[in-house]
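Re: weekly structure request thread

Next one in the queue (484 aa):
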Amino acid sequence: MKNRKYAWLYCALFAFAFIVACTPKLAEVVEAPVVEVPAPPPPNPNMSTCPKFSDSANSGEAETAHVLYRDLLKMKNYEEALPLWEKAMAMAPAADGLRDYHYMDGIKFYKWMYENETDETKQKELVGKILNMYDEAAKCYPKKATQYEGYKAFNLYFNYPDMATQEELYGMFKSVAEKGGDEMPYFIINPFTSVLVDQALAEKVPTEEAQKYQQLISSAITKGSEECEGKKCESWEIIKSYAPVRLEDLETIKGFYDCTYFSTKYFPEFEANLQDCDAINTTISRLKWGGCSREEEKMKTLYLAYNTHCKEEVVTSTPSNVSLGGQALRDGDYSEAISRYEQAIADTDDMDKKANFTLRISKIYYVHKRNFPKAREYALKAAELKPNWGEPYLLIGRLYASSGPLCGPGTGFDSQRVVWVAIDMWNKAKSIDPAAAGEARKFINQYAQYMPSTEDVFIRGLKVGDSYKIPCWIQRSTKIRSPK
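Done, posted below.
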């Protein structure tokens, strides 16, 4: 009975012990594993802060408009594409935030409208919109701001020249060049070179400043052409056919280039014609113009050649004007040389001598002053003074052939068409003067390969054999030819 009395107690204790034994101890509790949530990727530094597809209340609608207008634009269906572009532009001007499609395509639309607009006022408004697109793109994509600024100047130079003065263009190109250094956008190099040379020759840019940008342009050309790959090198070939040639015009500014520049560039011409008095006198003149002293080794060599092979000219009427003209030429005083030869022409009745002195003046304008219209003027005078003389026409042909960078970008149709009139002149020299025939044939064979291609002629609606007037300073009619 006593055992029954405590039986319930034994059962309770047993149950409690069982529960305790079956319950995990605190130290043995296994915690759930911690799942690490990856940190969000850092923001893309190139992502535009302007409204994007993802910022739009209806991103799907914006993206659809984008895709549709771009497909139509590829097919040049501007009319149907325009309202879709306007919609995409209004909803998400920065597109996906990484590509400037809406701004660059906007420029295409405005250019299309400009080309189809005849009202000058409206055309100017459209040009303003084109330029504004570049400004707006720069705000949304500031890392490309320099490139947009370059595009803006490029368009003003080539497409809308009446919308900016030369001074304004120079300032814009200079700004881009400053920011880009020797990695300036390649497409500004040729137009910047043209504006720089024109402004420097017009004395609107200080010589020191022009020297700075000439060196910067030359460095950019060297760097770009050495580092380019594949098709990109084609653009650099075009640049190299234009900019360095135009920069040569700065040689006419006294002190712009130094002795090293002139001796490196022109001494080889003397070395190829060691006994030619024209080559000797011209090289002496160029090196002296560049600041080379008579004590320079190359100058000593030149004067030795002069004393050995070149005799003083003697003209019975006024020998002093001829000799002084030659001395002024060797001293690099080109204006004085021209003046002396003009006096020599007036003081003699010998038509051959008049013609020779006139042609010398022509060569001074061509070689040293780089004034092509004046050089042609005096060459034609020389031809009148001495009929059936081929030398003046050989020179005019060279003037025309070297005018590619003056009358075009240095390559392509606009520059190559000058070869047509050059060949006209060489053919004329060959036909009237047997003594000039060999030189004329040499020039024709050398330059015929550079005429515009048949394809370039055809795509402009022209035909081989038709008459064609060469623009620029030349302003002469010729016959369209194509390379054989």
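Residues 314-318 have pLDDT under 50 and may be disordered. The first helix runs from residue 2 to 22.
Next request, please.
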